[in-house]
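ligand=NDP
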Amino acid sequence: MNIKNYINGNFHNPIQDNWLDNYNPSNGKIYGQIPDSTKEDVENAYISAKSAFPSWSQTTLDERSRILIKISELLEANLQRFAEAESKDNGKPVSLAKQIDIPRAASNFRFFGNAITQFASESHESIGQQAINYTLRQPIGVVGCISPWNLPLYLFTWKIAPALAAGNCVVAKPSEVTPMTAYLLGEICNEAGLPKGVLNIVYGLGGSTGQAIIEHPDIKAISFTGGTATGAHIAKVAAPMFKKLSLELGGKNPNIIFADCDYDDMLATTVRSSFANQGQICLCGSRIFVEHSIYEKFKTDFVNKVKALKVGHPSEKDTNIGALVSKPHLEKVKEYIQIAKDENGTVLCGGNEVTITDYENGYYLEPTVIEVQSDECRVNQEEIFGPVVTIMPFTNEDQVLQMANKVKYGLSATLWTNDLKRTMRMSNQLQAGIVWVNTWMLRDLRTPFGGVKASGVGREGGFEALRFFTEAKNVCIKY
Ligand code: NDP
């Protein structure tokens, strides 16, 4: 199936007629092609967005909200079709896409469709100066949204929905590795009555199509989720043009387990926080630190549970771990397993590719647990972004806090304890944008989302996203 650029409400071939292959990770086969878009395609998308802006930015909140909620309803009505498409493109189990990715994409539109009707700005009476100040929150204009391959539609819509709700027009690019659900979204936007040109989706490589978006002098804001190195590059390109930037980047998140936690709950959640989506979630707890007194018990119980996970074809109902997203990514993850061995880490389980009958060329890997000797080894410091976690014991709070914070990243942290004072001490000091206590990935879309250090700049989620996608203007009236 060939995917086409979605520009001005229509589907277009790329101007240069160059195409890229799209692979199905579950069997390693090419199953379609996507545009290898150039600067000219991005320019057309920009022109379309720019023409739509005056009218969209003046569309009433009621009308914007109605359209966004309609998109949400259509996504829900097409759940099975979207979940199958996401799975085929990404390798994730269909069951996961059905339970998480697509419902969450629908929630993004519903949430921001509602949130914009509640988004208010401030006014300040300047007492004694006979003046009143009020703040306008005006849409920026044309904004760029660039998203990664791990949660394709989920993260794509996490950006697009607030951008549109705030009255902007969008030029968006999904990862070239997982373009399919973005393509289907275009059809749904037309059906929901989104005016032509309000959303434009171009497909292609990061270094060319993505680069054309970030370099475009009149695309005034970029919301990007992806790797830290790409984020740094985007920041450099955008800085001289003073673009507004929101960067949600990589993570190497600690999962800190104290002996006083609810053990069974912790164990079940830790299996999920380690290996959900084949470990390809920026929030996965990839560094597990366990209090010394329960370390040996945890090690045995955890490894037994991980060994019981079924690696299988994404469409099979009992599959826990599907395929990794691409061949190069599989190779990268395998390299890290070798690095762990070279660093004297002990592979407690997993570490090998899995061959699935009839799908021998798919990118399957066993979930892998590595016991490390030092928190400073490479597999404990660098983002692997696959089904690989490290474990090691700790003796006290200070030590684990130091180890948890001693990485360049600061996206999320998970803490398992029933001690309230420790919870308060630790969550204050953990260097992370999000701290989960006795849970993982419990999301409320009103909360600020983002990271510190090399995990990003800025916050999205709730009104934070609406603030990002608007410019504040103060008006001061003397009376
Ligand atoms: P990349 O940084 O490689 O790519 C992300 C997106 O940016 C893709 O659409 C990519 O296009 C595009 N891109 C690449 N180069 C450029 C460029 N020069 N200009 C503009 N766009 C560009 O990340 P991955 O897709 O590999 O995603 C995995 C990463 O994302 C991990 O590091 C993960 O931690 C992070 N992530 C962070 C999250 C967060 O919320 N903090 C959430 C999820 C993931 P293409 O793929 O087509 O080359």
